[in-house]
Amino acid sequence: MNKTAHRFLLSAGAGALALAAWPALAADAADEAQVGGSVVGERTEAPKSSQEIVVQGEIGYRNRTDQAEPVLVYDEEYFQRFEPLTAGDALKRVPSVTFLSDVIESDGPRLRGLDPGYTQILINGEKVPGPNPDRSFFLDRIPAELIEQVEIVRSSSARRTGDAVAGTINIKLRDALSLDGGYIKGGGLLFDDGELKPTAGFYYGGELGPGRVLIGANVQGRYNPKEKTSFRYGDSPENNPDFLTDDFDNREDQSDIRDGTDYAFNGSYALESDVTTFELSGNYVRTDRTETERSLEYNVATGTPGPIGFDGDEEPGLLTDAYQLEDIEQENWGIASKLSHEWSLGKTAFKWGYARFNDNADGIETEVDFETGEEGAPENAEWESELVVTRNVDEELSFALDHAFPLSAGVNFVIGGFLQEKDRRADITTFEQGDELDGRAWDQFTVSPAGLIDADAFEEDDRALSTIAEDRRDVYALLEGNHGPVSWEAGVRWENTETRIVDLSADPEDAETEYDYDHFLPSASIKFDTGAGRVTASVARTVRRPQFDYLTPVTLEGELGDNDLRGNPQLMPEMAWGGDLGYEHRLGRTGVIGVNLFYRKVEDLVELVNTGEEGDEGEGSFVLQPRNVGDGKVYGIEFDLSADLAFLGLPDTGVFGNVSLLDSEITDMFGERRFNDQSEYVYNFGFIQNLRQLGAAFGASYRKQGKAYGRIVSEEVTTTYGADLEVFVEKRIGDSFTIRAVGSNLLDGKKREVFNKFDTIEDQEDRDFDEYELEAERAGPVFQLVARYAF
Predict the structure, then answer these.
(1) Which one, 39, 353, 427, 456, has least CB within 10 Å?
(2) CA end-to-end distance (rounded Å), the chain
(3) What GO CC terms are in its UniProt record (predicted)?
(4) pTM score
(5) In sequence order, which residues have a C-beta less than 8 Å from that of residue 4 and are 6 or more positions away?
(6) 261: nearest Cα among 302, 221, 211, 215
């Protein structure tokens, strides 16, 4: 029996065991001791009716929580009226979340502006596998329609794994205890180039036998018609104010269309009594997508001259023509079960889960280089085509058990353990073919560079095959208390991580690498209620384990632009001490205004360092290696507001906003800078106006993210984004039907990047540029029309 089948059967057995235990546990006396305290993600409210979800008669606001930890909670009502497509789109409206994604996309969340690997992503309180070597998870894979609630956990707790230097984002999906009734959804999205994509969904929750059931399905058309233009120069304005005219080298025009469909399903069955709760749940997301790119590189700043007709010693106007097509199929699914029971000795909770991520992609890139052709004979130009076949599988099996002992009135002692087995298999094979253009090939090229490809002529050039096994064994203990206006928690978590990486394509002496890490992670939080206000303070030790491709001692040629990447088996995890200090104040019946200060000191920081060796591309390229280079600091201040304007006599006007000012300090070989690609700020504000007598509502949201700067050896990049304006108008018909129109990216915000490129470290220090590049990317506004009907 293979390992996957074994894990699945083990998971199924755990679920069956928990289900079998239900009758006995539920039969226990209802007068057994109740245990105080709360856990992030625990349910506290009765199921919502489908009419409440579909017809929102009230405006959704940010919630306040009772636990000692600093947690911001946003229900689906807070996001839904702006019709976010994905969990990433929803998070654009919460404090301190930035993205470094393509325009109109939101994939890897950067909490406090830090790299996605510093943020812990949980689904229903559990970690999930993904394709990224830094263990991060792209939230654009989760349709927003599945979300019941989003929790932003600013500091860490011994209850959860410590991979949360920046914080934790917990996405709670709808479950059997969240919905009573059903609804259907249908609509469409119109993109800037006229493409129309459908969206549809069905959801139902209700009683089934002794428990409750939820089933939901969603189909979402995905599309992004990007246009990109790059201008490249031999020098920069640092050295030559007239570089635009004096130092022009070439221009590249690129179209990049991402076209696909997401299919999602989630289901849940729950049994609940006064003292016992059992839930069995599962979710499945499939993505079918094609990415088509066409790049044309010219030696003129304007116009589109072709390769035919150049004469004499003049270079062709068209330098290169490239075509890329990638076919992507991804599947992410998981099953999990939870069982909790309150009895005379306290409260016991058991959880298990199995999750799997399949990533299959076939990408072909073909390029014709006219600079290699003879003068006046572009058909003699050279062309080459590369096929990359990717097959990645990542699966995780986890078990967790904890028990809370009541020590005295309002004080509990909690102990627990966590076990996780992660297996990852990556198989990437590269094939190549190429030749000079002849008469036949020239005819094929004039249609598209893809016409040159001969599917039977590809020859294998390289194959990278690796397996990763990572086992975690954690135990923790904490004390928690609730004494009227004061709530507190203090604990410690011990984490042991054993990692074994086998690179089957490497030399035998470099093929296997093993690591064993042990960490003690203390944490503490306290909350004081002061009338309508509250003060929260937290301190925690957290960890970021090295990403997988940084650990194996294999050298990957051309992995970092023209530079090579060599892994470092001596790399240590990054450790951090962090603190949060916040105050929030209740405004009226539903409003909240808050401010929070945060600080993180990161030790054993991992940065790419130049080994001094020449890279595979020859002069001007390097072999880079990740190393622990020292310490860094991250700090900032976060403001947020969510309230109505009842004090002005406008109870049906809701306003919301947040501002985060972000900063950090780190020193590399060139001096002091921020953490790479940390935005200087991010803010979002808007309003919702409810028109009760008309059964309608409208609103707007405006978001802006500050510039981000990143620097490694040989390259520096500054990224800026234009502002994002979204507007919605909705009409409610009766108690069961809503139709909503939404426009997003209405300001046609562009992503702009400035690249400084250098040949050597000395050139970078002396600001002697090899190339200076200005790049701009746009996709245009997106319009939605969505209707929901509750039954």
Answers:
(1) 456
(2) 46
(3) cell outer membrane
(4) 0.90
(5) 356, 395
(6) 221
